[in-house]
Amino acid sequence: MTTLTVSGRVAQVLSSYVSDVFGVMGNGNVYFLDAAEKQGLRFTPVRHEGAAVAAADAYYRSSGRLAAGTTTYGPGYTNALTALAEAVQAQIPVVLVTGDAPTSGARPQDVDQTAIAAGLGSATFTVTRDAAGAVTRQAVEYALTRRTAVVLAIPYDLASLEAGDEELPAPHAPKVTDDVDGGLGQAARLLAGARRPLILAGRGAHLAGAGPELRGLADRLGALTAGTALALNLLNGEGYLGVAGGFGTDTAAGLMGEADVVLVAGASLSPFTMRFGHLLGPDSTVIQIDAGLQPTHPRVDLFVSADAKTAASRLLQLLNGEAAAEGWRAEASRRLTEGPGHHPGSEVTPDGRLDPRALATALDAVLPERRTVVQDGGHFIGWAPMYWNIPRPQDLVMVGTAFQSIGLGLASAVGAARAVEDGRTLVLASGDGGFLMGLADLESLIGAARSAIVVIYNDAAYGAEIHQYGSQGLTEKPMLIPEVDFSGVARALGAESAVIRSLADLSALTDWIEAGAKGTFVADCRITSSVRAPWLTEWMAASQAAKAAVAG
């Protein structure tokens, strides 16, 4: 029997769950990385510790497979906190393997990492010499069953010591309890009586693999269907309205507002999805099916705690023989055809820079059809889900939206690039502000990606702040960014690149794609700051209404 160190035991157990590790090497994790290599784990180096967690996060979102991030203790650990908070709030399983203070006590440079993680809502599992494997398995299964990010800490003085002998039980599958006879029976009765049913799917439905069952249920009922941005095209087919929320069209939103019974599967009904309270009509009955234990929105009339796939299958059985609602889909199709879609953008802008809507439309025609899109946070986030074809729910990775952060895009692209298979091209959309925050990991992406395209919506500003606060008369000086030549930076790091000042300039990207799309291409797109995204206008109106209500 081969003798393993504590770090070796951690890597051994971890290797039965993950194949990829992302991180930055330091004193606190050097023994773990050595052991991980011996266990055959693929290590992808990143250049900032925050990228370790964000890359593992995006890897899971793109593939549905768990990955690990790793940092050293102290400053390496604290550098990863924003990405850790995003993963927790977005309910993404991630394991952060980190060094920690020695068991003999904290040194002057140590911080209370467990307390910091708890403040973010993340549990810490600290390995011991005698139970390194058991604690590792406990941490991983906690992350998977709770859908959250966890910290797996290795005290520095134990990392290279010989691990104790352990008898590890086989991993157990999580149990799912479905309220079939109660809640689902009532849901079936409500759906059977609906004249204008709507099924709204979220990421939870996608992760549960419930798309075919929900699609079949919609066809049985004659229901319209929609999805959150993170379940885009999951229910595509007859009666599909697209995205629910600020990224959708007003025509589609109007139809959703007329639904009399709404089945929500695996969606939290966030303010963005709900258009800040205006998506659903006041008289609609809302049924929510979710793996959680309680409803996530006050509009929910009936809540069923269940696996979305199992619940949809049971509803199909309960509704066997029910007649579909008549005329609802036909009316929706007519109104979608006749109603306005997304604004196509303009050829001319006040400052002579590109209209991001026209740019997004042109890019959709240029980008490879087999694409996985990763987005940083920022004002531009609506242009991809609004204007680009996103083939599958897992092909839109929006890291940063849960925690309202920017700067995680490049790091997320590294993880998604490692997860992307079957010849797909990774497409990163970023603003110039977020791109500068994560700039070090452009080098990581260039090294990791087989085929990647980076689209920078470069308005020389923090665009969301310009529209929210500059429009109120506040000084714009802190909101502006000097024009950065990202194309020059990209070429220096080994990527192909071009500055895009006109739609005709996209020919450089087209030529690169036609030549095989190998490596990384950075499109530095100079866009205007004069176009405000519809979702931001909606958000601003909701914020102003809330302030007025408080003042009144």
TrEMBL record:
Pfam families, A to Z: TPP_enzyme_C, TPP_enzyme_M, TPP_enzyme_N
Recorded coiled-coil stretches: none
Presence of keyword Chloroplast: no
Domain (Thiamine pyrophosphate enzyme central): residue spans on this chain: 186-314
Domain Thiamine pyrophosphate enzyme TPP-binding, first and last residues per copy: 376-511
Keyword Magnesium: no
Region called Disordered, residue ranges: 335-354
Superkingdom, natural source: Bacteria
Keywords: Thiamine pyrophosphate
Transmembrane annotation, as ranges: none
Family of this protein: Belongs to the TPP enzyme family.
Protein name, UniProt field: Thiamine pyrophosphate-binding protein
Species of the source: Pseudarthrobacter quantipunctorum
Biological classification of the source: Bacteria, Bacillati, Actinomycetota, Actinomycetes, Micrococcales
